[in-house]
């Protein structure tokens, strides 16, 4: 059986639509890079990801950030499931239907019970759409008991 990191490395260049996260599958991002401390995912802004004024919905941007951080943290290799205890997001510019966005997240600190991540979503021009920080805490649930 492969490790979570090996599995996700096999998904590089593919659409992330067959993960354990139904919400993340709906985003349909494309995995660009992944390691124990880093992830890069590309998203295309579709109409259903937008608010009524046809720009990327802030909640959807937050979902992108939380889901990518979750995937990367899962791939980091903890024996136990880790879950978000917070997600702090700054929305800095808008993204329109058809925009291609790149999300990059990096593990800033890995502790025995808590991992701290920072992430940013950018347009192809390099302009920042949103940035976030998140803490993931270890639960008592062993990953091998989840059948993921």
TrEMBL record:
Instruction: Tell me the superkingdom of the source.
Output: Bacteria
GO terms (molecular function) for this protein are: fatty acyl-CoA hydrolase activity
- What region holds the Thioesterase domain? 55-129
Which is a Pfam family this sequence falls into? 4HBT
Keywords assigned by UniProt, alphabetized: Hydrolase
Please give the InterPro entries that the UniProt record associates with this protein.
Answer: ACOT13, HotDog_dom_sf, PAAI_dom, Thioestr_dom
- Output the NCBIfam families linked to this UniProt entry: unchar_dom_1 (TIGR00369)
UniProt similarity note? Belongs to the thioesterase PaaI family.
The name under which this protein is listed is: Thioesterase family protein
Q: Which organism is it from?
A: Algoriphagus machipongonensis
């Amino acid at each position: 059986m492969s490790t979570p990191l090996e599995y996700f490395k096999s998904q590089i260049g593919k659409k992330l639509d067959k993960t354990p996260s139904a919400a993340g599958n709906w985003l349909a991002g494309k995995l660009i890079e992944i390691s124990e401390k880093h992830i890069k995912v590309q998203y295309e802004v579709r109409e259903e990801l937008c608010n009524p004024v046809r720009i990327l919905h802030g909640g959807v941007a937050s979902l992108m950030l939380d889901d990518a951080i979750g995937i990367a943290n899962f791939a980091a290799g903890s024996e136990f499931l880790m879950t978000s205890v917070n997600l702090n997001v700054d929305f800095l510019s808008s993204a329109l239907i058809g925009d291609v966005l790149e999300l990059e997240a990096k593990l800033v600190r890995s502790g025995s019970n808590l991992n701290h991540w920072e992430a940013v979503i950018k347009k192809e021009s390099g302009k920042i759409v949103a940035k976030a920080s998140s803490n993931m805490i270890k639960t008592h649930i062993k990953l091998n008991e989840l059948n993921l």
